[in-house]
Amino acid sequence: MVGENAVPHHLDDGNTPVSVLLVDDNEQWARFVASDLEAEYPSITVHLALSPNEAMLQLGEFDIDCVVADYQMPEVDGLELLERLRRERPELPYILATSEGSEDIASAAIDAGVSDYVVKDPRVDQLSVFASKIHRAVEAARLRQAMAESERRYRSLTEQSSDAILIIQDDELVFYNQRLIDLTGRPRSWFESVEDLIATVHPDDRDEVRATLRRWQDMSAGGQLDELRLQTVDGAVQHCEYTGRQISHDGETAIMLSIRDVTDRKQRQRELRWERDLNRAVQNVLVAARIRDDIEQGVTGLLVDHGYELAWIGVPEHGTLTPRAQHGATAYLTAIDLSMETGTADSEPSLWAARADESRFVDDFEELFPTDWLEQAVASGCRSGAALPLSYNEISYGVLAVYHAEPGRFDETERRLLGELADSIAFAIHTVDTEQALASDHTVELTLRVVDDAYYLLDVVRQQRLTDGESITVHGTLRHTDGQFLQYLSVDESMVGTLRTALDSHPDVSEVTTIVEGTVSRLQVVVEAATPESILINQGAVVRSTTVETSGAELVVELPARSSVRETVDNVAMVFDGTAVLSVGDTTRSVADSASVSIVDMSGLTAKQTAALEAAFHHGYFEQPRRSSATEIAEALGVAHSTFLQHLRAGQQKLFADLYR
């Protein structure tokens, strides 16, 4: 233990410099003490002042750690100097030295707040006494300053914390940060006791919170996360997590409580749950559906069941957007004009989506200028709405429209979900329509004539100036990758050389491969531009054959009986000018034909399985001997050998299962 007159070792280790102001009107004594202190203790630097005024000047000029002042000085004594310094620098250590060991002076010094007190004794070497008291005073001051700075930083951190932090002692709130005010919406004057805090908790959670706080007060246990709900002044509910532990505050046991707002996280969890449940329910409907009406009625009903005020699907018919399925506040649909002529920028979202073929989201109907449809929407209980086109492979299947009873509901997550839902609905409708068409005995056979050079094969044959009787036949068109298509062509051997050269150099062609050489050669062509065949297969049509001559290209196409011939032709004519219909006829398959349909029903195949099967056929993979190996076909398709075989075998399995089931 360090005694009163002992000098702590770190005052003399040169690592803790101390600047001392020695104030004494006895110059001889002062200079002697200053000199000996600096000589004996190198870490101490002494500045000398022979009067209180000089001391004030020195304090303004130097960074002083401690003042040692004589009590008895002319005009102003040491206690009066202390009183002045305390007004300007209350934290500065101050040691009073006096030649008079009076109890009155000592008492007055203590009352005035001196750091320490020394009685001068010229008969004794007091250097160690002064050094020890200076050290103790400086160390105590530095410790107080460090603690004050630590507390300041702690308070700063707690005020900046995103959590509400409280200290509870004897059922009183002795500290809390601004975050608690923000969370509860109460003024600072509200919080004094634990019950004031409990009053901000949701009534259903109050007993549990009281019990938890009591448990933490009675034992040192704590640290686990619990949940509570806070209620703001306006009744809004904040979902929170809270935890607490025992601490020592001002020497007494207290509870430090931390409350974190997790409302956004809870909301996100609810949204994810809602999204997952809706997705699962919709997928079940889509998988079970056998006709289009099952899909449309099932999905719109589910959307209303999952919180939408109104959900409907409409299709353009005769200039009007006609509802095919509707659930919820359906009175709104009968009260508004759904004429496609009104599909302008400020029209009903569904009309805009149908005309512009793009999604439309309106977050708050009441923020828009009044229109007839807006007034009807609000009157029907709808405050926000969205409409999304239903399309697959550039074929439109109508519009999906949904409405909320509250504004501002269409956040990024819901917009993404609705976009994915619209894609799924369109694909499902396409699938059931295709399956129905394949199962139907009635089809429409359509013969088209294309004369536009925008079709790359017409451009090529005209450049080559084919003579009468010379032609190119297209046997198949498949989707490839990145918007490309594969086409299989047959040409006479007399023209294959020049024709292949022309194809190789055409800007719409990226690759040409000869797969059969002979009297009639077969070519595989990778096309990067639209062709009449690619447009037709995207609409669910089957292109039976294409014959390309200098005068034009003739396509024989089979359409499902319910398909719109006009719409099909218009879609081709939009890309290839001058497209004309040569003939249209209804056909009915015979019993034998109908039986054969089940054999070659490829609706259950994936696009990759279909491509693998057709490529294998055109490349002669099934012939004996094989004209092309699996490796060669895989390279032509741009896939791995194993991938090609996997899709080929899976496709064969599905077709044979239908045949022999």
In short:
With 661 residues, the protein is α+β, with helices and mostly antiparallel strands. The strands form four sheets. The protein has an eight-stranded antiparallel β-sheet with strand order 19-20-18-17-21-22-16-23, with helices on both faces. A five-stranded parallel β-sheet has the order 2-1-3-4-5, sandwiched between helices.
Features:
about 650 residues; alpha+beta; Rossmann fold; Beta-Lactamase; eight-stranded antiparallel sheet; five-stranded parallel sheet; 22 helices; about 40% helix; elongated; disordered N terminus
Question: Could you outline the blueprint of secondary structure elements for this entry?
Answer:
Elements: E1 18-23, H1 27-40, E2 44-49, H2 52-61, E3 66-70, H3 78-88, E4 94-98, H4 103-112, E5 116-119, H5 127-160, E6 164-169, E7 172-176, H6 178-184, H7 194-198, H8 206-218, E8 226-231, E9 237-249, E10 252-261, H9 263-288, H10 292-305, E11 310-317, E12 320-328, H11 331-335, H12 349-356, E13 360-362, H13 372-379, E14 384-392, E15 395-404, H14 412-439, E16 442-450, H15 456-464, E17 472-479, E18 485-492, H16 496-505, E19 509-516, E20 520-527, H17 532-538, E21 542-549, E22 552-560, H18 565-573, E23 580-588, H19 591-599, H20 607-618, H21 630-637, H22 641-660
Parallel strand pairs: 1-2, 1-3, 3-4, 4-5
Antiparallel strand pairs: 6-7, 6-10, 8-9, 9-10, 11-12, 11-15, 13-14, 14-15, 16-22, 16-23, 17-18, 17-21, 18-20, 19-20, 21-22
Helix pairs in contact: 9-10, 9-14, 10-14, 15-16, 20-22, 21-22
